């Protein structure tokens, strides 16, 4: 079993401003752990996590792949989350390079077709658009969960960017809930972007039915 990253350096005060790892985070870690051997053998060189929050997920990936085996890039719109991400990398002996930006802005052009492992646990909770827009415009804890209509407003924006980021053999893990309409996400990614996706893990947690989706380019080897 791969140990969950040590977050003992983060305090309750940090988690008033930054998303504290929860069931969605842990389901994502479980999916990555299930794929650990496959991920290692594919030797990713560039990993990019959008919305890294505490840095827990990228530190976990660093533990799977090895602290200096890849470039671990993380973004978050919340600058305090960026600081927590860097601190979590340090605490777990993985160098996490954090960029405070909207999604992959400022990195997109340089990273086109170069990302081997792409991860996004987005704000997926359905809210009205005004709430999601206000969370995005003054990033604090609400930006971690307020997802707008169907919980998909930010995710839809990123789903248009993700295919262009992925290297030919790259993979993309996305967290979603039932309300996000998972069949529609899978169909759109296949039909509009030629990315084949599947649900690799799902779990009920309170009122949420969490899913981990994994996408790969059509024609690349799809693990069953
Ligand atoms: C559900 S939390 C996930 C945090 C962490 N990855 C985890 O799994 O525990 C969503 C994260 O996305 C960040 N976020 C929200 N909007 C963003 C945006 N437009 N660009 C980058 N990050 C964003 C939030 O600040 C938050 O850290």
Automatic annotation (TrEMBL):
<dbReference type="GO" id="GO:0032259">
    <property type="term" value="P:methylation"/>
</dbReference>
<keyword id="KW-0539">Nucleus</keyword>
<keyword id="KW-0808">Transferase</keyword>
<dbReference type="Pfam" id="PF05175">
    <property type="entry name" value="MTS"/>
</dbReference>
<dbReference type="GO" id="GO:0035657">
    <property type="term" value="C:eRF1 methyltransferase complex"/>
</dbReference>
<dbReference type="InterPro" id="IPR007848">
    <property type="entry name" value="Small_mtfrase_dom"/>
</dbReference>
<comment type="similarity">
    <text>Belongs to the eukaryotic/archaeal PrmC-related family.</text>
</comment>
<dbReference type="InterPro" id="IPR029063">
    <property type="entry name" value="SAM-dependent_MTases_sf"/>
</dbReference>
<dbReference type="GO" id="GO:0003676">
    <property type="term" value="F:nucleic acid binding"/>
</dbReference>
<feature type="domain" description="Methyltransferase small">
    <location>
        <begin position="27"/>
        <end position="131"/>
    </location>
</feature>
<dbReference type="GO" id="GO:0005634">
    <property type="term" value="C:nucleus"/>
</dbReference>
<dbReference type="InterPro" id="IPR052190">
    <property type="entry name" value="Euk-Arch_PrmC-MTase"/>
</dbReference>
<dbReference type="GO" id="GO:0008757">
    <property type="term" value="F:S-adenosylmethionine-dependent methyltransferase activity"/>
</dbReference>
<keyword id="KW-0949">S-adenosyl-L-methionine</keyword>
<dbReference type="GO" id="GO:0008276">
    <property type="term" value="F:protein methyltransferase activity"/>
</dbReference>
<dbReference type="InterPro" id="IPR002052">
    <property type="entry name" value="DNA_methylase_N6_adenine_CS"/>
</dbReference>
<protein>
    <submittedName>
        <fullName>S-adenosylmethionine-dependent methyltransferase</fullName>
    </submittedName>
</protein>
<keyword id="KW-0489">Methyltransferase</keyword>
């Amino acid at each position: 079993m791969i140990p969950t990253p040590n977050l003992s350096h983060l305090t309750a005060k940090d988690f008033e401003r930054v998303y504290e790892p929860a069931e969605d985070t842990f389901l994502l870690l479980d999916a990555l752990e299930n794929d650990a051997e496959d991920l290692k053998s594919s030797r990713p060189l560039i990993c990019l996590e959008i919305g890294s929050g505490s840095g827990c997920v990228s530190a976990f990936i660093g533990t799977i792949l090895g602290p200096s085996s890849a470039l671990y890039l993380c973004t978050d719109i919340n600058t305090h989350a960026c600081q927590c991400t860097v601190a979590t990398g340090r605490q777990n002996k993985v160098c996490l390079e954090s960029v405070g930006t909207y999604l992959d802005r400022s990195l997109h052009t340089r990273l086109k077709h170069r990302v081997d492992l792409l991860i996004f646990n987005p704000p997926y909770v359905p809210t009205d658009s005004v709430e999601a827009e206000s969370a995005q415009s003054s990033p604090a804890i609400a930006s971690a969960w307020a997802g707008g209509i169907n919980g998909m407003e930010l995710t839809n924006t990123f789903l248009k960017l993700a295919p262009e980021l992925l290297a030919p053999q790259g993979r993309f893990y996305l967290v979603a809930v039932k309300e996000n309409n998972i069949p529609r996400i899978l169909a759109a990614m296949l039909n509009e972007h030629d990315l084949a996706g599947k649900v690799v893990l799902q779990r009920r947690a309170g009122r949420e039915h969490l899913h981990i989706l994994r996408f790969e380019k059509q024609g690349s080897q799809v693990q069953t």
